[in-house]
């Protein structure tokens, strides 16, 4: 079957606006990662219903055409990148929130809804969806589920997967299944929902999801604390986590990331010249201001030079806006950046930061770090000029050392961004051969012909 004939069959299934073929498909061929490659797709398709997704998948299965599921391609691991001869199956057009159930505190949504739109829609009904990846203004709920995305509020509330109750999934055969339970509890059969969460499009295509919600928390208060050194900031983070309280956000920025964000966005009001900073928030109803006073006192006791307290939502948002610029700011430094996503047990963070400094020194490369220090998930970042082959090679090599260090500390190559095509080389070291083989067997059970997102995740 020629590409032309496949495109003709797709055109019979979809409206003209739902199909981009040939060169037009190249606009959708990769995600936001640097350091990953992409193949040439046959076409990109934009279905708007589960039935349309299933019809496209059946067509692809019939002709043995690989499928790369996509949200909005905000991923940082190459997971949504095209492979040669594939169909890019974008869920971007599935943008309906189907129901918000206040009594059961759940929302049922199509997969292409933008994360922040969902957060805003449920907030209007007095409910709270906590997962808040830095990309929430552009990422989709389906992409968040497929990567088990984290974010700033994980330290208190957990990751996307902690909120997934039920999924509608199109299998590689084109069959439509529903996994999980709308109920709080449910243990019938094996937990396929958890298997699909974080599977990066390799086991099935998520078209709809029912997500758990919480009551709206209190108005957040926050503090931005500046420290002379990373070790003082880390000591403060440890002391805060050792209190009986749990901050809703506990983020870390080092001197390099503060400088990059400040020059990218001069209005960001981050503490210029600081050796490191913490952003700490509390959203405990009736207690947030008192919590933040206590966190500020801890920061000062650990050597903070300034503590800037944000008493209302607008002031808190202004600080978080600066933090959310991290990726763009780091990319702007030299044109490209490798944003790692290692996670270690919190007690090993000091060893991780010291080890990263040593790796950078040996390689003669600046490695900047920022991230979710409250849950042990750090983003060490290497900036490089993508046109400079030697710089690209050094960045890639250095990146491998940082990941190996995290694994040696009992951590993981990826806390939230996913494996995609970028980090598969580390799976042997982290998982070992028996677990890897078991995982390949699971993949085979779901997708015997290996058509769903080949070359990714596993
Ligand atoms: C500025 C910036 C900040 C970020 N901050 C964070 C952060 O704080 N935390 C975090 O976890 N990530 C973060 N990310 C990474 C990224 O936004 C997340 O991985 C996000 O979940 C990807 O969603 P997406 O809709 O863009 O998915 P895509 O990038 O399109 O796809 C990601 C993966 O999921 C698969 N996929 C997508 N949709 C589906 C579906 N419906 N069914 C099956 N498979 C699917 C794809 O095949 C791919 O493997 C950030 C990215 C940027 C650019």
Automatic annotation (TrEMBL):
FAD-binding PCMH-type domain mapped to chain residues: 37-216
Q: Which InterPro entries match?
A: FAD-bd_oxidored_4_C, FAD-bd_PCMH, FAD-bd_PCMH-like_sf, FAD-bd_PCMH_sub2, FAD-linked_Oxase-like_C, FAD-linked_OxidoTrans_Type4, Oxid_FAD_bind_N, Vanillyl_alc_oxidase_C-sub2
Decide whether keyword Oxidoreductase is in the record.
yes
UniProt keywords (A-Z) are:
FAD, Flavoprotein, Oxidoreductase
Essential cofactor(s) = FAD
* Pfam families the UniProt entry points to: FAD-oxidase_C, FAD_binding_4
Family designation: Belongs to the FAD-binding oxidoreductase/transferase type 4 family.
Protein name according to UniProt: FAD-binding oxidoreductase
Source organism? Homoserinimonas hongtaonis
């Amino acid at each position: 079957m020629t590409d032309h004939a496949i495109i003709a069959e797709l055109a019979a299934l979809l409206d003209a606006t739902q199909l981009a073929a040939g060169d037009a498909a190249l606009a959708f061929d990769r995600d936001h990662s640097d350091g990953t490659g992409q193949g040439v797709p046959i076409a990109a398709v934009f279905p708007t219903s589960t039935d349309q997704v299933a019809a496209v998948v059946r067509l692809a299965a019939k002709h043995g055409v690989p499928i790369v599921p996509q949200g909005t391609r905000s991923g940082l691991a190459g997971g949504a990148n095209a492979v040669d001869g594939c169909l890019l199956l974008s869920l971007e057009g599935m943008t309906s929130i189907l129901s918000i159930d206040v009594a059961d505190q759940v929302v049922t949504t199509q997969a292409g809804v933008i994360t922040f739109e969902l957060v805003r829609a449920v907030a209007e009904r007095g409910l709270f969806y906590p997962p808040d990846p830095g990309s929430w203004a552009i990422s989709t709920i389906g992409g968040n589920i497929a990567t088990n995305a984290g974010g700033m509020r994980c330290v208190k509330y957990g990751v996307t997967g902690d909120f997934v109750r039920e999924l509608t999934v199109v299998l590689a055969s084109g069959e439509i299944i529903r996994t999980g339970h709308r109920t709080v509890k449910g243990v019938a059969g094996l937990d396929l929902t958890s298997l699909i969460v974080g599977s990066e499009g390799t086991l099935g295509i998520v078209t709809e999801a029912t997500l758990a919600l919480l009551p709206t928390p209190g108005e957040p208060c926050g503090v931005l604390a500046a420290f002379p050194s990373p070790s003082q900031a880390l000591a403060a983070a440890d002391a805060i986590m050792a209190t009986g309280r749990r901050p809703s956000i506990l983020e870390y920025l080092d001197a390099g990331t503060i400088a990059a964000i400040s020059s990218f966005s001069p209005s960001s009001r981050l503490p210029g010249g600081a050796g490191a900073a913490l952003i700490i928030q509390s959203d405990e109803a009736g207690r947030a201001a008192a919590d933040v006073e206590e966190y500020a006192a801890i920061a000062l006791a650990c050597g903070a030079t300034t503590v800037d307290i944000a008493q209302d939502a607008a002031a808190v948002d202004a600080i978080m806006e600066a933090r959310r610029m991290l990726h763009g700011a780091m990319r702007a430094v030299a044109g490209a950046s490798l944003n790692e996503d290692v996670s270690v047990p919190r007690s090993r963070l000091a060893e991780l930061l010291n080890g990263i400094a040593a790796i950078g020194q040996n390689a003669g490369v600046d490695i900047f770090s920022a991230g979710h220090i409250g849950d042990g998930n750090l983003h060490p970042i290497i900036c490089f000029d993508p046109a400079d082959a030697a710089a690209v090679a050094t960045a890639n090599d250095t990146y491998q050392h940082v990941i190996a260090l995290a694994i040696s500390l009992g951590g993981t190559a990826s806390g939230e961004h996913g494996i995609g095509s970028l980090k598969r080389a580390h799976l042997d070291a982290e998982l070992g051969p028996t677990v890897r083989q078991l995982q390949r067997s699971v993949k085979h059970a779901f997708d015997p012909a290996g058509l769903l997102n080949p070359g990714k995740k596993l």
